[in-house]
Design brief:
Blueprint: H1 2-9, E1 13-14, E2 17-18, H2 21-31, H3 34-48, H4 52-65, H5 69-85, H6 89-102, H7 110-123, H8 127-140, H9 147-160, H10 164-174, H11 183-195
Antiparallel strand pairs: 1-2
Helix pairs in contact: 3-4, 3-5, 4-5, 5-6, 5-7, 6-7, 7-8, 8-9, 9-10, 10-11
Length: 196
């Protein structure tokens, strides 16, 4: 029990995010028992270590085993991530849609689910659908840390449809943040557009 308490004081980063103390307490309150929280952490560890198949299995088990809304929404989102990084885009798309439809009130990952839902359509080369979803994401989640990245992928979707002017507008939006991880890619795409 002591080791478990120590572990919850400094939860691990999951990709670009960390659990805050509030989120840990909230998760524990929703879980109602330490077993579900511990199993959730094991699944997160698999995800962090890029063992996506094991992570997917663990999150599926959590969803079936623990019917608590916070666990269900969070595990469904992360199951979607595990599928996405295995390039199982159809499966991932279904999971992100499930989070949006079934857990809008209980997940802290609604914006990320909407973003990845759009990105799945892009990866499946459904560019019209991807553009509509990115538009919805940009409208409803202006404070998301994925907002500018959505502009980048929206620009690339327009490029795939040979709509260069619209692509340029989107890619220039990315340049507004000097430290943005997609800034260099956006500059490269804009340079290619100028050469046409």
């Amino acid at each position: 029990e002591k080791a478990f308490e120590e572990e919850t004081k400094n939860p691990p980063a999951v990709f670009w995010e960390k659990f805050s103390q509030f989120q840990v307490r909230y998760l524990l309150a929703q879980a109602k028992d330490l077993k579900s929280f511990y199993e959730f952490r094991v699944a997160l560890k698999h995800l962090l270590e890029q063992r996506y198949e094991e992570a997917a299995q663990q999150f599926q088990t959590l969803i079936l085993k623990f019917p608590y809304p916070y666990i269900q929404g969070d595990a469904t989102y992360r199951l979607g991530l595990a599928y996405y990084f295995q390039k199982r885009f159809l499966d991932a798309e279904k999971k992100f849609a499930e989070v949006i439809q079934n857990y809008p009130e209980t997940t802290i990952h609604l914006d990320a689910s909407a973003f990845f839902h759009a990105l799945c359509a892009f990866q499946l080369q459904q560019y019209e659908t991807a553009l509509k979803r990115f538009d919805l994401f940009l409208e409803y989640f202006p404070d998301s840390n994925k907002w500018n990245t959505a502009w980048y992928w929206k620009g690339i979707a327009y490029l795939e449809q040979h709509q260069e002017e619209k692509a340029e507008i989107c890619l220039k939006q990315v340049l507004q943040i000097s430290e943005h991880p997609k800034r260099r890619d956006a500059l490269e795409q804009l340079a290619k557009l100028k050469q046409k």
